Amino acid sequence: MKRTGRALTMPGCGTAACALLLLFGLRALAVCPHACSCTRTHRVVDCSSRGLSQLPEGLQHNIRSLNLSRNRLQDLDGLLGHFAHLRTLDISHNQLPRMPSRLPRALWEILASGNRLRSLEKNDTAYQWNLRALDLSANGLERVVFINNTLPDLRLLNLSHNKFWTVPTNMPSNLETVDLSHNFLVQILPGSLDRLPRLSRFYLHGNRFSSVGEPAFGRLDGLRLITLDDNPWACEDEENMTGLLAWTHQTSARVLGCPCHTHHVCGEARPGSTGAWRYASYTQRPLGAGNRQAGRLPLEAVTSGGWSSLGQPDDNDTSNFSLPANHLLFGGGFSTAGTSTTSTTPRSRKANKAKTGGVRGTNLGLRTCAPHALLLNVLLATVVYSVL
């Protein structure tokens, strides 16, 4: 090869032929590992469900998305840091006992559900300045430690199906969706939720709450949806339940799974023309693989069992609630029909039916009256009117 004037030529090679040779030579360097499948540019790599016990060789340094899910990986410490352009990392359903160390700082999305994680230490996420979504569901997590003022871009945090007893403290302040469903939660420590002004979706169903202090949710000014279904609420303890019940009927958020009430929806709920309780529709596509395009981050909502790209709810839409195909979203506790269902056990329903007045009777009015009670009110009104 020699330089002639401004052109770079090779002996016995025309300009067009050399260009083709260089092009094919560069393409030859971009080799997809034989255990994986890649896009044409080799920057989106899928190595899922290949029985891998170690990181495959031959990955390009400029890959943007790497799927290592459903393998037998046990240790990735220090093996991913040089992928400086990596945005999406899926290491879910492996055998990892801890979060890999020295992860790329360009990451937007980490999916690590279904591993053997027991804790999340402060250094595991201390340098993830660009992270927007973190899925740690279905592990054995008992505690997570976040440093104040870290993870400034984190919007979605999925900690469902773990072993938490209390709501984690110091959660990143810009979170919009938090899923803590299906844990062992029994309390919310004072101040735990005071620094979450943007939190709009909060999933707490499937836990062990018997009561929650009155000011627990009072500082969540941006809240639009909260789930409280499938918790053993101590409805007979009116002193501790009054504050929560009052909040559920004063908040502008939609409350799914109203504690101690036969109706399943409160907050902004209102009866439809057929008597069925309805609320603004959250139309969702099915969760799971195929719903998340490689390299694109779902920023609208996180739910138990997968990530979903959801549209913003229309406050003027009173159509029926539509559940996604993946029933893990609400742990099977919510009806897919327009009529709401109740998760109250027969024993608790009997106790509530026997109770008159108290907390239940003071806040609900005609909104939760049984049909015969409503008919009685109409008859009384008719009698009074005829007398007058």
TrEMBL record:
Residues 336-345 have a biased composition (Low complexity). The keyword Signal applies. Transmembrane segments: none annotated. Residues 31-65 form the LRRNT domain. SMART domains: LRR_TYP, LRRNT. Residues 336-358 are annotated as: Disordered. Keywords: Leucine-rich repeat, Repeat, Signal. GO terms for biological process: neuron projection regeneration. It comes from the Eukaryota. Residues 1-30 form the signal peptide. PROSITE patterns: LRR (PS51450), PROKAR_LIPOPROTEIN (PS51257). InterPro entries: Leu-rich_rpt (IPR001611), Leu-rich_rpt_4 (IPR025875), Leu-rich_rpt_typical-subtyp (IPR003591), LRR-bact_E3_ubiq_ligases (IPR051071), LRR_dom_sf (IPR032675), LRRNT (IPR000372). Pfam families: LRR_4, LRR_8, LRRNT. PANTHER family: OLIGODENDROCYTE MYELIN GLYCOPROTEIN B (PTHR47114:SF4), PTHR47114. This is LRRNT domain-containing protein. It comes from Conger conger (Conger eel).
